[in-house]
Fold:
Amino acid sequence: MKKHILYWSVCALCVLGLNSCELFGLSYAFDYDQKHGANYGTLSCDAFEWIEGRKDNDMTLQFQAIERAGMEEAYHADGYTFFVMKNNVWDDWLTSYRYSCIQEVPASTLRTYLKRSIVPGKFLTQDISVPVFVQTLDSTVTMRIYKTIVAPTSSQNLNALRAGWTNDNGLINQVGMVTSNLEPTNGALHVQSARFTFLTK
Structure:
């Protein structure tokens, strides 16, 4: 009998925990360093300064790519949404194109990729109710930004934002975010879980 009471008590606590915005005191709103708070996404610097501040940590390759492409001004510019990649995702990008380091990649190639990862306007998850199609800084490519519908306490998806480049045939390679809704002083910034690519038929 005691086992049954204990079992049902634990089940009730789990249900209560899963139906709240916090689970065992852990908020589901995290900043980049996994700390929670009311203004978890607000930064006191612009996108380039934030990346530069992490160049010795997990944004080394993003910083190197921006420098090599001569794109610093684009990341200082106001009114944009920036999609950036941590070192492990850049490593995957380099491997897929058979480069061993950023310095081997032609500056023009990096410039094109980075331009396709910046869109005019400020797009945060909470502001998106329907998919948004927006032209990237590389005017030949359109990005689709949208959010998935997930339970507010889903451990599977703390960041519901998705984005991807659209092809003429309408195919999209959707990419999730490991961190979303950072707000530098010049727009919005999202950290991708994988690299953007084009899908083919």
Summary: The beta strands are 22-23, 26-27, 80-85, 118-120, 132-135, 142-147, 161-166, 175-182, 187-192. The chain has one domain: 26-192. The domain at 26-192 is CATH 2.30.180.10 (FAS1 domain).
